[in-house]
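Hey,
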Amino acid sequence: MPLLETDRLFIETGIPDDGGRNLGVIGLDDPNAIFREVLIADMKGIAINYRLAPEHRFPAALDDALAAYDWMLDQGLIPENIAFAGDSAGANLALATMLSLRERGLPLPIAGGLMSPWTDLAAAGASYVTRADADPIHQRPMVLALARNYLGELGDPFNPLASPLYADLKGLPPLLIQVGDRETVLDDSTIFANKARDAGVDVELQVWDGMIHVFQMFGAELAEAHQAIASIANFLNRHLHIKAERGPQ
């Protein structure tokens, strides 16, 4: 796919794999669900096929995401025309990539859209208890097992590039975070959003009533899912200035 400097690029990091990162992938039956929404705005989309755990543990996926971003800049794209998005562990990877770029002094993408982000591999949030009966997918022992699979037995779940909740969040671009209020990983979103705001990050947090982990995958069945995907598209369009540049239709 040829890329031009003026292209608007949507990078989706929620790719299913065998390392626990197959949870809550957008559009399991229709993997292009979110792409349909953003491509309305003439945006190109790239999905990163990063290496998988347990064969390739942390930070292999992060290294691959950084390499993909470097490649896009080498193609002449400018960061102001790039936005990240991801779901669940893919949202973790999107955040970790932005944090790593900042630490390296490299330009960050213009915005990030995060769906049910897994920001705390230590699973320390109170919602792992308070939402345990309401969440049909994730329980804390399962989440901790997935974290060990990704990090390895000696891996540190408090490493800020593995668990963005524990990072210094200063300098991140505007973020949209969507999460269902039935999720055990709810606090991964709410606590992260509060911490990011305290660090001066422009954060929009949407807690969707009655929704489960990455409910956006059910865009064909749930009105809320379709509305949430449209909200992500609007957020990305706004920060990429696509509608303003195209003018009234």
